[in-house]
Amino acid sequence: MTKLTIVANIKANEDKIELVKAELLKLIDITRAEEGCINYDLHQDNENPAHFMFYENWETRELWQTHMGNQHLQDYMAATEGAVAEFTLNEMNHIA
Predict the structure, then answer these.
(1) pLDDT, tens digit, for every residue of 21-43?
(2) Helix/strand/coil (H/E/C) assignment for every residue in 34-61
(3) How far apart, in whole angstroms, are the C-alpha atoms of residue 40 and residue 32?
(4) CB 3.0-4.6 Å disulfide test: which of 19, 24, 48, 58 passes with 64?
């Protein structure tokens, strides 16, 4: 099976940028230690600091789905409720 690439875009409300950033940073070490995680890299847009992007690679979609059900993601969702203006997620396959 081909590895799964995830591109997740998170746009924070202007007054909640630092809160969202702090909560996103909390996800990194615990996620990188999860089974199947190849990389889990957080980026912040140079022009728009409210825009964050995770670039992730997982060994399988099933292992990524396990990650999505973990407590630390539920904790993130609770901590940032009302602070995120927009969220998009793309599941992609590496083709070349």
Answers:
(1) 999 999 999 999 999 999 999 99
(2) CCCEEEEEEEECCCCCCEEEEEEEECCH
(3) 6
(4) 58
